[in-house]
Structure formats: C-alpha cells, structure tokens
Input
Amino acid sequence: MDVLNNYINGRWTASKESNTADVINPATQQVLGKVPIGKGTSTDVEKAVRAASKAFLDWRNVPVGKRIQPLFHLKQLLEDNKDEIARTITNECGKTFAESKGEMQRAIENVETACGTPTLIQSEFLEDIASGIDEFMIRQPLGVCACIAPFNFPGMIPFWFLPYAIACGNTFVLKPSEKVPLTMMKVFELIDQLDLPDGVVNLVHGGKESVDGLLEHPETKAISFVGSTKIAKYVYSKGSANGKRVQAQGGAKNPVVILPDADLDMSTRIVTDSVYGCAGQRCLAASNIVTVGDDGGSMKEALYEAAKSRNTGYGLEDGVEMGPVITSESRSRVEQLIARGQQEGAKVLLDGRKAKIEGYEEGNFIKPTILEGLPLDGEIVRTEIFGPVMSLIELKTVGEAIDFINAGSYGNMACLFTSSGASARKFRKEVTAGNIGINIGVAAPMAQFPFSGWKESFFGDLHGQGRHAIEFFTQTKVVVERWPKEWSRKF
Ligand code: NAD
Output
C-alpha cells in the first residue's frame, strides 16, 4: 500500500520519513492507507513552510478580490465532490454518511463566508482626528499560517481557518490528524485544480514531530489548533513562547439542562441526537443531561427509550444512526470510564459496552450508554468521555443547574430546553460557556459567527470562523497623516 504524499509547493511530494502508521477504518479494521510519522516529518514541515514563506511575498500583493476567485471555484468543486469526500470521512472516521455530508456542508459554508473577505477586511478611517490630521487603520496579512487538526471532523475543521487565511493574503500549511489524513488528501486533489500560485496552500502529514516543527519554525507566524485540552495547552504555550499568534481550541464536557416546561418530544429527539451523534465524538456533544423537576421521571423514560432504539453500525449502511469510535484504544478508554463511573456509585441504566455488530465484529463499537446518579463531586461527571455516553443528573432549580455548569472547568457549550423566555434569558446571561443553545442540542455557530469556546475549551483571544477569523489572520496597522494646506499647489 502506498505511503501518503505531502502536498508542498504545488506538487505531491514523498515524505522524508520512512516510518508509517496505518490509517484504519474503525468499523471494519481495514487498513486504508499508510501515513508518514516520525522525526523525518519535521524536514517535510521545513520544506512546506519555506515554500509558503516564498509564496507569501507575491500572494500578499494580489488584490483581495482576485484572492477569493479560487475560493469560488473551490466551493463548486466541494459541492460536486461532496458525496465522495463524505464517503472517505465515514470510512476513516466512522460517522454516518449523513453526518459526513453535514460536515462537508459546514466546510462549504466557511468557504462561502470567506468569499466575503473584501468586505470583511475593510477597516476604519477618521478624517480630522486632530486639526488637519487624518487617522486610519489597515489590516495586513501575517505570513505563513498553520493549522493542526483533530480526528473528529476531518473535512470541516481545516475550513474554519484555511479559506480566511488565504483570502486575507496569508499562505497556509495544514497538518491533518494522522488518524484521518485521507479526507484532506481528497480535498487537496481539488485544491490542486485551483488557479492558486505554488506554495500558497500546503499539506504535511505526521504527529508530534510535525506539530513541533510548525511551532518552532521562525517563519510560521500563526497557529490554529483544534484538539484535546492537554495538547491545546501545549501548543498554546509553546507557540506563544516562540512569538506566534495562537488560537487553540480544546476539549469539552457539555451540559444540557431540561426544564419541566420543555417540549418532551422535541427535547428527547434533539438531546439524544446531541449525545449520540458522531458516537459522542463531537466537541459539542451533550454529555451531562440535567433534568430539573422531572418528578414523574417522564423525561428520563423518554431519553432511555430514544437511546435504546438508536441503530448502531457501519456508517455507509442504510438506517444506521451511529457509527463506531475512532480506535480500539478509544473504545477501551470509554469502557473504562463507564466502569469508573460505576465505581463512583452511578447506575448503568443502559449498557452499550462490548457491542457486537453483525458483519463488523471487529469494529470499535459501543452502543448508547446511560449512567445515572454520578456523584457531582466525582471525577467522571467532569471528565470528557468522547464516546456515546449520557450522564443523567437531577437538580431542583435552574439556578442549581447554572451553578453546576459554572463549577466545571470546560466552557465549550451549554444548552437549555424550556418554553420560558425568562429562564432562557437567565441561562444565556449567567452560564460560563462560549456557545449557548436554547432549545438547540448542538449549538455549533454557523460560519458567520466565531466558534466561541471558553475556559479550558479555548486558549487565545480570537476564535475560528467569521469576523474573528479575519481579525486573527490579519495584523492592524494604524496610520496618522498630516498634509498641511500650505503644501497644496495652486491648480
Ligand atoms: P488530539 O489533541 O489528540 O490531537 C489533535 C492534533 O494534535 C492532531 O493533529 C495530533 O497529531 C496532534 N498531537 C497529538 N498529540 C500531540 C503531542 N503530544 N504533541 C503535539 N501534537 C500532538 O485530539 P484528537 O483526539 O484528534 O481530537 C479529539 C479532541 O479534540 C477532543 O478533546 C475534542 O473535544 C477536541 N475538539 C475540540 C473542538 C473545539 O472546537 N473545541 C473541536 C473538535 C475537537
């Protein structure tokens, strides 16, 4: 099986590293490819950053209206190839085909939004800020920008950054997750068809060594990272110590609060989708489900029934609603966390461990699981599980629920289900999370808005997507000008 190539300076190039890791279909265990991993990948990074740095000298001078033309073309190519890319996502990442197509739709929307850069990048001008003096601000690109991506959205997450970065006049190096590198290989086959100068967009594979190469290279000016909190902290501290602008999105433990006045059917459907969609491997997956005043237990019952009936299997097959988790290690980790929850005193209402799917017996499947009664001062109630596990928690008031949420270390998302405007207003005002959903289960900001994690879910100032992306990928320059009247020629 061929080893995956890098895409550097407009050409597919073999890695300098001979060591490889297998890219594995998590449902079938079929080896789909071999990705270079090891010390030699830092040489690949060096070549990619050098190419991007050289390309920047000209690309920054291309008018912004011309810089977005390849993005219009890319949007069309992504639309035309959406199903094929989605199939690749399902095969290497495990999510269902419908989820993969939804992911690509979000990627395309970011390309569309970045096409608005000629308007978004405009800045401020104040005539006569002092007598006869004008002042204005312009936004200029930074140089070489890099993205380090996680495994769980191989098709979407690079697009939170790439289209904005290049539309703003930067050049780009992408390092996809070594677990799911094939999706971006497909996307870069499309990028190769664009009318983009060599070196503007580059792809390098690898793991820690290529990340360190990007963090250490003097020509890398900005780093966009998405992944676990542990690595986000590492990337943020090392990158900023090396003088780079860094935005680092980390892990999550997302609470959803259901009040007694919520619509039972709607809440049940949306909340179970949020917990079990993408097998719980979304950074916006609901994890702690807090019911308030569910005295008769009807909400608990409805959630249980919806979880139990969810169909788990290979994501390319019809009727499958949930795929496997990414690796066998990940499956063991999630199963161990469920056991730890039991040891802490929780009851396993629904146990999806050791799931066997007919025809896919070797797959990393865990069926929907529900834990009830986790102690609120325990470890598991605050641990990111990143698997199809719902923790049911009962509290008495919306105020108690807000206190519980705010005591958590993560701040990626918090959602409320209610028909009360006053409760919704209190919740959105007081909760310390960056993305809030009201009667929404996955409060993923659309491309025009920043993906606004807080606390241990985000390190940095400016987030991905929308206007934040334009600000992140540009530096401001302020000009103060005096043109004395006496210098005017008498025409
Ligand atoms: P991860 O942190 O293991 O890997 C992310 C990237 O970091 C990969 O490209 C990987 O190669 C690299 N990496 C891994 N170990 C490294 C090391 N020691 N040094 C340097 N680089 C290293 O994350 P993952 O498992 O791929 O993704 C899942 C995590 O990402 C979850 O915690 C999830 O919540 C989080 N996530 C967050 C968001 C968000 O927007 N906040 C979005 C998606 C995923």
